[in-house]
Amino acid sequence: MTPTRRDFLKTSLLATAAAAAGITAAASDAAPGRDYYELRAYRLKPGAPHDLLDAYVEKALIPALNARGIRTVGVFTEPEAKDGPAVWVLIPHASLESVTGVTASLNADPAVLAAGAEYLNSTSKEHPAFDRLDSWLLVAFAGLPRLAVPALRREGKARIFELRTYESYSEVKALKKVEMFNAGEIGVMQELNLSPVFYGQALIGRDLPHLTYLLCSPDRENHKNSWTAFGRHPVWLKLKNDPQYAETVSKITSRFLVPAAYSQI
Question: Which three-class secondary structure state does DSSP give residue 191?
Answer without folding.
Answer: helix
